[in-house]
Write a structure and sequence with these properties.
The complex is a heterotrimer.
Chain A (H helix, E strand, L loop, with lengths): L1 H9 L21 H12 L17 H15 L4 H12 L14 H27 L7 H21 L1
Chain B lengths: L1 H28 L3 H4 L2 H24 L6 H6 L6 H6 L5 H22 L5 H25 L23 H30 L5 H31 L10 H26 L3 H24 L5 H6 L1 H25 L14 H31 L9 H21 L10 H21 L3 H4 L4 H25 L3 H12 L1 H26 L1 E7 L4 E4 L2 E12 L3 E12 L2 E6 L2 E5 L5 E4 L1 E3 L4 E12 L2 E10 L2 H18 L12 H16 L1
Antiparallel strand pairs in B: 1-10, 2-3, 3-4, 4-5, 4-6, 6-7, 8-9, 9-10
Helix pairs in contact in B: 1-3, 1-7, 3-6, 6-7, 6-8, 7-8, 7-13, 8-9, 8-11, 9-10, 9-21, 10-11, 10-14, 11-13, 14-15, 15-18, 16-18, 18-20, 20-21
Chain C lengths: L1 H5 L8 H17 L19 E3 L7 E3 L8 E6 L4 H16 L3 E7 L3 H11 L5 E5 L3 H5 L7 E5 L5 E6 L4 H19 L1
Parallel strand pairs in C: 3-4, 4-5
Antiparallel strand pairs in C: 1-2, 3-6, 6-7
Classes of the chains: A mainly alpha, B alpha+beta, C alpha/beta.
Amino acid sequence: MKTVKLAIFIGLFFISGLAGAAALSSYTFADQEEEQAFRELTAKIRCLVCQNQSLADSDAELANDLRREVYALWKEKKSEDEIVDFLVSRYGDFVLYDPPLKPSTYILWFGPFFLFLLGGYILSRTLKSKTEDKEVELTNEDQQRLKTLLDDDNENQEATK
Amino acid sequence: MIPEIGHFALVLSMCLAIAQAIFPLIGTMNNTPSWAALARPLAWGQALFLTIALGALTYAFLVNDFSVRYVASNSNTLLPTVYKISAVWGAHEGSLLLWAFFLGIWSAAIAVLSKGLTQEVVSRVLAVMGMVNAGFVSFMLFTSNPFERLFQIPAEGRDLNPLLQDIGLALHPPTLYLGYVGFSVAFGFAIAALIGGRLDASWARWSRPWTTAAWVWLTLGITIGSWWAYYELGWGGWWFWDPVENASFMPWIAGTALMHSLAVTEKRGAFRSWTLMLAILAFSLCLLGTFLVRSGVLTSVHAFAADPDRGIFILIFLLITIGGSLALYAWRAPSIFSGGRFDLISRESFLLGNNLLLTVFTFLVLFGTLAPLIYDALEWGKISVGFPWFNKMFLMVTPFLAVLIGFGPLMRWKRTDPKKLVKKLRIAMIVSVVIGLIAFLPAISTGSLLVPLGMFLVAWIITSHITAIIDRLKHKQGISHIFADLAGKGRSYYGMVVAHMGVAMFILGATMVSHHGVEKDLRMSPGESAEISAYRFKFEGVAHTPGPNYTANQGEFTIYLDGEVEAVLKPQKRTYFAQGRPMTEAAIDWGLTRDLYVSLGEDLGGGDWSVRLYYKPFVRWIWLGGLAMAIGGIICISDRRYRSKKEKKPQQAYTEAANTLVTEKS
Amino acid sequence: MIEESKTPSRMRYLIPLFLFLIMAGFLLKGLFMDPRHIPSVLINKPAPEFNLPTLYDPEKTVSKESMKGKVWLLNVWASWCGACRAEHQVLNTIAGMKIVDIVGLDYKDEAVDGKRWLKQLGNPYTEVLVDKSGRTGIDFGVYGVPESFLIDGEGVIRHKFTGPLYYPDIKGTLIPLLEKIKEGAK
């Protein structure tokens, strides 16, 4: 695993995705629910040295160490927020797959609603103009041309038959 | 010698692509039919030389020609032959060649299957595709040549990345690229229409089957990719919203919107500028995906640092193609007439809603994918935007889409009587609400609101489509009509139904596996058992097994259900000779209602192993849903009206002619 | 009526092009950024507390308190780290210049290997601390070796070098920072 770390700086690391099968097997939990909750927590934390993997899935050594720290805090009955704070105060928001809500992330969290409103606005405007639109009336002259166009078409059809 | 032939063929195909981009276009502009007629032969030639190039590279792999750098880095004498072939597109350079090859094939297909089109349109479409391929082939030749030789010939190759030594690699990139490249056809038609100013509905009719074909390939490609990641990476997941995954998903969403919008444009002449925009958008997102995956802006900087030209080259290419087409759009689109009126409750308005939702979703995924880069560039801090964010966005959009899907098939063009509609759908509504309510039971919902929601949507899609089919057949007089409709006349209708059922299957699978899946990490000794859901997994032990180019530790698990043996699973932990990296090879017992999944972790000594066990209910339905969508698309393409070019119903001919007139008037 | 709605909305059709150009700008900038580089959140914040044994005398420990009043460079390294080998010559040069105390943090390493490494490549450190478990590394937000932290007399982290130090870093970053710290202390 040390080679993985090394590779990051030499730049050999290009396809990761080796999931750490059984990364949590050395920890014990009271029941299935607790294990599930712990897994969900570590799944939301990004492994810093991997390509794009969560702490729950990574085999990297740093991920192992961080998992151990998180487990220790978990066993001390620290709340999820406290554990997240522990990590964020050391590594920044980068470790969180779920970006926290704060002024700098307002765009990320409220932008989508704005996009939705924009979509709704376009929808309502188009519908308004379309439902109020009059059917385009064809003048006599147009009818005449239309007839020729259609006749042409029929002739073509005849021709191909 | 053979690699040089391949290299030379590549250079020739670039020359032909450039010629294909220039002469036919000029020919259509100054009325030189002989120049315009060059389009087809040039497309043929380009496809031919790209085939030679791909063949030469494949040959180099098959004969272990390690003097070719690309072969030396991605193959090995011990590599099984089938993987030697798939290794051709296993890394950057070769996958680009595959891209270009497919573009050549699609161009040739247009040249053959475009008998019903005017020379002008064919020339323009092929010119646009020539431009795109000129970009790709020159990118390959200038920055990523797969035929580059090594002067010190290594005795042995470095081997293909073990993760890629799998049937998944043989299938996933080709299908995905056929999809990406296929959207260049829709793009070509749109640009041809914009250049020519012939913006009547006919181009929509021509590009519809091509767009659907591209969409079918992309659907298959993404589905196979998801399935491959599920069984190969040993993590038990099927989608992670990774930038590379998103890069393939964005064109898919935009392409889905395009397919629906094309229907409106073809049938009613409406949404023309919007459809053109979507055609440009879908292909632009394919190109953007290429940039994101290959430039290293979102994954590893080192790929870029190794060769700074690549990112810059693709970016310039994006500026020319996307920027150019958007500028053309801004110039030409304002004069497009956008079709006749329709009511608030009509097929048009519902498809408009579908389109807006899909477009909003496309931009959300794009925004989420680029957000870390944008934040970094603006120095707003380093953030990660991962699956929790994307899942929330997904859940914000899909329920609305799924509700709209149910109404779609019963809607009529121009206006639908809301009262009749409600009357028809009454039973479907009641049934699906009841099913949704039943799913509130704690045993089914596991306390999550999403399970009832998902079950409601699944029931709604299914029941509403059954209603629609019954309603359709009711109007047919006599058994013979019903039979004819089912057998062929209404193919595109039934294709749509099948594809929509695919959506229901997907929702069912995704809901079930996310809320009822169980996953356990354990330390197990031989003979020990673990209970998961109703199953008992008994660990029998681990033994050595040799492989062609690896050795493996193979575990054995016997799985019991109610005391009966349900399955025997043999997951492996492999070490490949050439790269020495351990690889987890999961073992899966698959079934329609559940997958049992075992992956082997570390040897903990004394015969003990760490293992990961999964119970994945209905996970197959996710990919079966994708498959159903693709099959639905294929049924649509097979519809006769795309093949008989002159056979028009009088009503449709009238509408088209009227649209042409109106366009001229405005 | 169609004419009417056409004129004011011409600009509307330029929006996609406009948005694309903005995105292309970001993509261009992105080519020159490192997506894997995670800036430290500890800059201008007090360094985390630590109390670690030294490599040559496991009985002796060094804490954050004991470094108070000194400007020092904490260099995180390990004998298994390839990039550290190249960096080591740069550290030797800095030590030779006597501009700042360098304290080594032997990260997740065996003492024997660490000692052999220093014997082979020279010892630029005034003190070598041992972080066997990597716990102190986590407190400092270390995510790869080598990394170096410049800490002032108040115990505040002033700068972090992620990845190996190169010769140009001495003149380009280290010396100006040291001067700034000196001025601030006056």
